[in-house]
């Protein structure tokens, strides 16, 4: 569900404030369940990255090269999920989760998924 442009739609930007790992949003009512949305990214480590990480392993501590790769990959999967939800007409995503699978040595799939919904503010 990748968009042709790197510029997110206004709807995708609005969804960001209504993404949660919870099954509901306090103060809002789900008026329509649009189904599962996901963002999938498959990344591999580069030879240069592996060399830099090996040097960091000698010193010990956080291996920042891998940390940055993981953060970027999760962010990209999250953004693809939001784009998918926007294309479906959602204004919120509930029950968001991440999953990762090693497809081959050094090649990992990261999946970000949740339930796309349309919500409205509850009247008190």
Explain the layout of strands and helices.
Elements: H1 10-15, E1 28-44, H2 47-59, H3 64-88, E2 92-104, E3 107-121
Antiparallel strand pairs: 1-3, 2-3
Q: Segments where pLDDT lies below 50 for 5+ residues?
A: none
Beta strand count: 3
Largest sheet, in brief, is: 3 strands, antiparallel
User: Structural class given helices, strands, pairing?
Assistant: alpha+beta
Approximate strand percentage: 35-45%
Shape: elongated
Give a description of the structure:
It is elongated and about 60 Å long. The termini are far apart. The chain contains 3 helices and 3 strands; from the N terminus they run αβααββ. The protein is an alpha+beta fold. The chain has a 3-stranded antiparallel sheet with strand order 1-3-2.
Offer a concise description of the structure.
The protein is α+β, with helices and mostly antiparallel strands and 124 residues long.
């Amino acid at each position: 569900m990748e968009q042709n442009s790197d510029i997110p739609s206004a709807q995708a930007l609005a969804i960001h404030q209504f993404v949660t790992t919870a099954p509901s949003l306090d103060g809002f009512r789900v008026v329509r369940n649009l189904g599962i949305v996901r963002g999938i990214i498959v990344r591999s480590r580069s030879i240069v990255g592996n060399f830099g990480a090996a040097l960091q392993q000698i010193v010990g501590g956080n291996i920042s090269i891998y940390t940055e790769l993981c953060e970027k990959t999760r962010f990209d999967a999250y953004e693809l999920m939001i784009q998918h939800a926007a294309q479906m007409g959602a204004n919120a995503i509930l029950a968001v989760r991440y999953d990762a699978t090693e497809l081959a040595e050094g090649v990992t799939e990261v999946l970000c998924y949740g339930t796309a919904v349309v919500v409205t503010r509850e009247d008190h």
